[in-house]
Write a structure and sequence with these properties.
- This protein is an alpha/beta fold.
- The chain folds into 3 domains: about 55 residues; about 70 residues, Ubiquitin-like (UB roll), CATH 3.10.20.310; about 140 residues, Rossmann fold, CATH 3.40.50.11690.
- It contains 6 helices and 12 strands.
- Helix 2 crosses helix 3.
- Keywords: Cell cycle, Cell division, Cell inner membrane, Cell membrane, Membrane, Transmembrane, Transmembrane helix.
């Protein structure tokens, strides 16, 4: 009986040995592949670290050329100074988003995109505000196409734009949205006036907002009382009146389009000046 048990143990041991050899034969290549991939991943990881470190310090990616496009009023020097750009700076280390935020602080900049072009150049694409009017609220400010003041006028600045008056600085401070609504009214009149070919020959120099409505003053001193609302129809009547004045060799000092009781009526005060 003891001899039989020892034989069974030998058979079991031999069977297990065979199973282990079979498993090694079947799974060995897989294990080797996994080990190979692991080694390759480690090599790539350390190689990438080394490559990034090299890229961030090598002169190969040093900035040599900066191109600024889209700007008319902001200068290349001003924009480069805001972005803290310097020649030789490594492109890999540049934070373009931070540069965009810094450049956006320039009063003329409406939007900006900074793009790296490897190996050694950079493009700054600018969209500027379009100035359509001047606003007088103590100081003078430029007003953009969406009726927002965006830049205070400094000594030496020169802009040939209609001047908007009649809005108090206190209104901007205390009720900004109300002030902007008045400004939008003035800018809408300026845009509509400039788009009418029969009236824009006498461009506006001032738009005054007051409790009774809006008064426009042309560059030759003619006053136009627009009153409130219905600007397109009033511009048509204005063009008709001016045409008639030219035919009669007369000059109007004041043209009133603000008759609320009879909107189609136009009152004209004739000037002593000759055309």
């Amino acid at each position: 009986m003891f001899s039989t048990k020892r034989n069974r143990r030998r058979v079991d041991a031999a069977k297990k040995t065979g199973e282990l050899k079979a498993a090694a034969t079947n799974h060995g290549p897989v294990v080797l592949k996994v080990l190979g991939l692991l080694c390759a991943s480690v090599a790539i990881f350390f190689g990438t670290i080394h490559g990034v470190a090299w890229a961030r310090t090598t002169p190969t990616f040093g900035l040599k050329k900066v191109t600024v496009v889209g700007q008319e009023n902001a200068t290349d020097v001003e924009l480069a100074r805001l972005a803290a750009i310097s020649l030789g700076q490594n492109l890999w280390t540049m934070d373009t988003r931070a540069m965009e935020r810094s450049i956006a602080a320039h009063p003329w900049v409406k939007s900006v995109t900074v793009t790296r072009h490897f190996p050694q150049s950079l493009t700054i694409s600018i969209e500027e505000h379009r100035a359509v009017a001047l606003l007088s609220i103590g100081d003078l400010y430029l007003v953009n196409e969406v009726s927002e003041p965006f830049k205070r006028i400094k000594a030496g600045d020169s802009f040939d734009l209609p001047l908007v008056t009649g809005i108090d600085r206190e209104l901007f401070t205390e009720k900004r949205e109300d002030a902007l609504e008045k400004l939008r009214q003035a800018v809408a009149l300026i845009d509509a006036y400039a788009s009418e070919p029969l009236v824009k020959k006498q461009p506006l120099s001032e738009v005054n907002l007051h409790p009774e409505g809006v008064t426009g003053v042309t560059c030759d001193g003619q006053e136009i009382e627009f009153g409130e609302g219905d600007v397109p129809a009033k511009l048509v009547r204005l063009a008709r009146v001016r045409k008639e004045l030219v035919a009669r060799s007369m000059v109007a000092e004041v043209i009133r389009l603000d008759n609320r009781a009879r909107p189609s009526w136009v009152a004209v005060q004739i000037s002593a000046k000759k055309p």
